[in-house]
Amino acid sequence: xxxxxxxxxxxxxxxxxxxxxxxxxxxxxxxxxxxxxxxxxxxxxxxxxxxxxxxxxxxxxxxxxxxxxxxxxxxxxxxxxxxxxxxxxxxxxxxxxxxxxxxxxxxxxxxxxxxxxxxxxxxxxxxxxxxxxxxxxxxxxxxxxxxxxxxxxxxxxxxxxxxxxxxxxxxxxxxxxxxxxxxxxx
Length: 186
What we know:
The protein has 186 residues and is mainly alpha-helical. The protein has eight helices and three strands, in the order H-H-E-H-H-E-E-H-H-H-H. Helix 2 (12-20) packs across helix 6 (89-115). The termini are far apart.
C-alpha cells in the first residue's frame, strides 16, 4: 500500500513513531519506553492520527483486567510517485527524506549511547563515494536491494536480531555544482 499522506508522516514525532513501529508490534506503553521523550498523551494523539490515515494499524489486541490493550504496527509501503508530482509534492518529499534520515540517525545514536560503547561489530555507519554511469549505479542499487530483500524473508530465530539498514544513494550535489562551474568557465 503506497503511503500517500505525507502530512501525517512528515512530523518529527510521528516519523519517530512510524520508525519504531516498522516491523515491530508495540502497545502505547511499550512505545512510551522506546520514545520516552514523547509524553504518553501525545503518543495517543499521534498514533490515532496515523491510524486514521492508514499509516499504522492495530496488529493485535489483548485483554488485561478487562482493559483492551492494542498493539500497533506501521503499514509497509512506498511513496506513490504520483504524489511527488502533485503541487507541493516535491517539497513534501524532500521534507520526508530529511525527517526519515534524521530519525534513523537518531535511533542509531540512541542505540550507541544506551549501550555505552560503539558496538562496532553490530553497526555500520559508513559513506562510500564513487564514480559510476547511470547503468553501473542501477546495477549496484539492484544488487543491494536484492540482497536486503532476501534477508527480509528470514523468520525470527535463535541468534537472529532484527536489524535495520538504511541505504541512501544519490549524485553528490557539491560535485555536480563543481562540474557545472567548470563547464561554465570553459
